[in-house]
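Weekend entry, working from home. Most of the wet-lab plans are on hold until the incubator is repaired, so I used the time to fold the two sequences that have been sitting in the queue since the last round of cloning. Logging both here for the record. First:
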Amino acid sequence: MTPKVYGIYGSPPFGAVLMCANVLKIKINIEIVNILSKAHLKEDFVQKNPQHTVPLLDDDGFLLADSHAINGYLVGTYGSKNDPLYPKDDIKRRALIDHRMYLDCGIIAARGFVITRPLGLDGIQPVQPSFDDLKEGFATLDRQIRQENSKYIVGNELSIADFSITSSVTCWGVFVKNWENEFPNIKAYIDRMKQEAWFEVHTEGINAFQRFVNAKLQVAL
């Protein structure tokens, strides 16, 4: 049975799953859940995912939420043995990948959602401290990339953490004024990721996110 992913273009975590599936060459069925119209709060979806978030994976009845968890599952299920994307046996590399994903979900994505969730669902405009917090998160990421000093976010092999970081930066970066000049390590990293074949599947999401911001944001950055 073909795995199904519930989500919406413009959701950074949904974009991360699309990129991972592309690299693994997994055919997936996409079911759009329009979170802007609060479709994720409908009872039938909440029964599938009590967190009422997207993306949500349905793999032959196995339901899993959160893009980081989904991508780890996809590699473990459909990837090669000890796949460097998220290796089973290389504990140190796996721990570093986990760290970068926690950096994403605990700092970058968490601070991004502080801005976009109330903006998208209730039209509540963000305040300057929220922009400042996200910018500080970008500063943390910039230092991490500088310290790593490698092609990817963990060494010189692609990992599932790259999908999360790439998706978050290319979407929520719209709220970090002048980030491409202020954070040169992130800029160089994203430029490298844009050269990867898998990045193409995320472009529709980037465009959708920008349309969302153009339609909803009323305050100056």
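Second, folded right after the first finished:
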Amino acid sequence: MIHFGILDDHPLVVEGLLSLFKTNPEILAGWGTTTLADCEKKMLESPVDVLLLDIHLDQLDGIKLCRDFRMRFPALQILMLTSYAEPPLIKAAFQNGAAGYLLKNAGYREIQEAITTARSGRRYVQPQVQEILLSSSMGFGQTPRLAYIPTLTQREQEVLTLIVNEMTTQEIADKLFVTTKTVETHRTNLLQKLGARNVAGLVKIALEKGLV
């Protein structure tokens, strides 16, 4: 029997998934919640094998949570279940420990297969997501660029604004009264959150998303 949990800030999504697997003899929906605090409590009290995790949660970054959960609960397999299909976001999810990536239009059998695959220690990528990644890598047409807005801390927002204003690492450190190493850490986190490969890409994405 595979036990799984759900963290999504939309109650209807949580309720729908719990109901969907209510009668499944092999996969049991252990619990579902809409808040991080409750999720952490439930994972300690009622551990699950797989967690279905939304990417964009209220005031939270699901990809960062994925990384944090994997560090705290090494045996936990995490499936990202989201509406966002941007290739950089998909890649960032896997780079931060996700075992699979599903869009919220996934059917019952796809979700079931994803949970089973993740529990076995293998990665699962929904066929639709595979097509998006292939199209992106081959340069075929336009890949979906949905309005995913990553959650930035106040300091990350400040650093991002200064980067866009073409300030150097040393200048940013002096202005914010921090070390250059701290600035570099924030820049690394920003690259990861926005799915950028370098500072030029970071600036481009930040402007596209209206983050500055």
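Plan for Monday: verify the second prediction. Residues 142-146 have pLDDT under 50 and may be disordered.
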